[in-house]
Amino acid sequence: DDQHWHSVLLQRVGKQVNFTVDEHRHRFHAQGEFSYLDLDYEISFGGIPAPGKSVSFPHKNFHGCLENLFYNGVDIIDLAKQQKPEIITTGNVSFSCSQSQSVPVTFLSPKSYLALPGLSREDELSAMFQIRTWNKAGLLLFSELHLVSGGLLLFLNDGKLRLNLYQPGKLPSDITAGVGLNDGQWHSISLSAKRNHLSVAVDGQVASAASSLGPEQFYSGGTYYFGGCPDNSFGSKCKNPVGGFQGCMRLISIGNKVVDLISVQQGSLGNFSDLQIDSCGITDRCLPNYCEHGGECSQSWSTFHCNCANTGYKGATCHNSIYDQSCEAYKHRGNTSGFYYIDSDGSGPLEPFLLYCNMT
């Protein structure tokens, strides 16, 4: 997802499968007893048509460009252009590739922040942007309120989005939206606060609430702080209860006005600290997956973690077997005859198996 073209080649001959991405080839054998492939009558590219399909597919449909799409030497795109009856096109598909010119910005550390001027004395506080991160928590946006004291906090907490509008002496208004937003994919976020109404949308799903401000008028603060707060020596009233955001943002708008991040980079708009502008420097630490024996990999900005539950192995990368290598080893521990899991090759590729150990 670096805005460049990538070449994908999938070849299958008998049980031998070659999977190549940009000249990086991975060879493996297909599982199962038979060497021939009994395919469904329908092959779909970019998504799976849901009606009548028994398969459930957890991922979103592909959004981007495909070219040189060949299946067994047949030019699929050419057939689609000719509107051949055997090709069914669903949704918004065009035979061109419009390149998105969005400028991403990367928040490299917990001390990163981007301070942007808001429209002064606006009676509505609103912003839109997209994020991607592996971290479960981090401040996304803070803005101070004028005329009434208080502020608006938008942050990630446990992979969910929380919008918090607070005033001294009043109960804060709180909205939670979205789930699993730390999956490394882009997610769109928009928020609006006006008089006694709050709303926030995540990927088009809207959540709203009545605010505790009541009918009082308020104006948006002069500055919007994205990703974190400057240190207190700058005199800002920015609050950050969850630590800095580490990840990428793009397509930032304040009050329906798109922010020119190149102007920020050149120093003519707002100010920032510890940012990388015009690239998204997020790293997938689970690719390649260092978790062995089927361990599940999860990650944050800086580290990865292996969940070794139900694998029969332990350690940072699920490398060490939790079972002994022989009946004799169990006998030395004083165990009596019975069924035991044996891992004959220890950390090797063979799975543990259950057998009866006769200790007599």
UniProtKB/TrEMBL annotation:
Concerning Pfam families, the annotation shows: EGF (PF00008), Laminin_G_2 (PF02210)
What CDD domains does UniProt report for this protein, alphabetically?
Answer: EGF_CA, LamG
What InterPro entries does its record include? ConA-like_dom_sf, EGF, Fibrinogen-like_C, Fibrinogen_a/b/g_C_dom, Laminin_G, Neurexin-related_CASP
- Where the record annotates domain EGF-like, the positions are 282-319
Q: Which UniProt keywords apply?
A: Disulfide bond, EGF-like domain, Membrane, Repeat, Transmembrane, Transmembrane helix
Stored PROSITE patterns: EGF_3, FIBRINOGEN_C_2, LAM_G_DOMAIN
Q: Where in the cell is it found?
A: Membrane
GO cellular component terms, semicolon-separated: membrane
- The Fibrinogen C-terminal domain extends over 318-360
SMART domains according to UniProt: LamG
- Indicate the segments forming the Laminin G domain, all copies: 1-97, 103-280
PANTHER family according to UniProt:
CONTACTIN-ASSOCIATED PROTEIN-LIKE 4, PIKACHURIN-LIKE PROTEIN
Protein's name according to its UniProt entry: Contactin-associated protein-like 4
Q: Which organism is it from?
A: Neovison vison (American mink)
Q: What is the lineage of its organism?
A: Eukaryota, Metazoa, Chordata, Craniata, Vertebrata
Q: Which gene encodes it?
A: E9PDN6
